[in-house]
Amino acid sequence: MVINEKPNRLKEQCVSARRNKTLVITDIPLATVVVMLIAVAVSFLNMGIHRLLITRMCGWEEYKVMRKETSEYQSELMQAMRANDKKLVEKLKRKESQIRAMQAKMMKPQTILIPISFSYIIIWYLFLIPVYGGNAVAVIPGIVLNMTPSIPNGLPVFIWYMICSFFFGTLASRVIGITPIA
């Protein structure tokens, strides 16, 4: 019975707060913002750690040079293959081992970041799922998904968090400089 007390107490607090017309963390306007802020914090934290790892492992300027060289190599190779230029392809194939070594060096920070990123799943188990469950936390006007019984076009926490995470992850990587803007 101790396990079921916590959700019932939370429901009672929510009902009481609704009667008193106060904002509750599980109500839609506040829930939308809270989940979005968590996604922003996790995205910027993740990209900050990534930038720190890049700086420590291979140096930021060297990383940018390697990224530029590998992308130029890939575009030249694709262009030569499309033009069916065997001489240029052969010439580029000689540089392949050097490019692969650069790519391996650039992948080391990302490899270390993967287990760190999995630790963010703890946020789901400790906060998001117990607080929001399958309830709607956001509404996108004009999109009817019928995923939550309480609100016909409401988005559950896992979908809203993923949308926010993809958006703010991309934004954070560009602001911090991991992914070039143009």
Overview of this protein structure:
This protein is mostly helical and 182 residues long. The chain has one domain (8-176). The chain has helices spanning 2-19, 28-57, 60-83, 86-94, 96-118, 121-132, 157-176, and strands spanning 136-139, 154-156. The longest helix has 30 residues, at 28-57. The chain is elongated. The mean pLDDT is 81.
Helix content: over 70%
The percentage of residues in β strands lies in: under 5%
- Return the domain count: 1
Number of DSSP E strands? 2
Mean pLDDT: 81
What is the helix/strand order? Answer: HHHHHHEEH
**Would you tell me the structural class of the helices and strands?**
mainly alpha
Q: Reading side by side through the largest sheet, how are the strands ordered? A: 1-2
Shape descriptor: elongated
Low-confidence region ranges: none
Number of helices: 7
Main sheet makeup = 2 strands, antiparallel
What gap, in angstroms, lies between the N and C termini?
57 Å
Radius of gyration: 23 Å
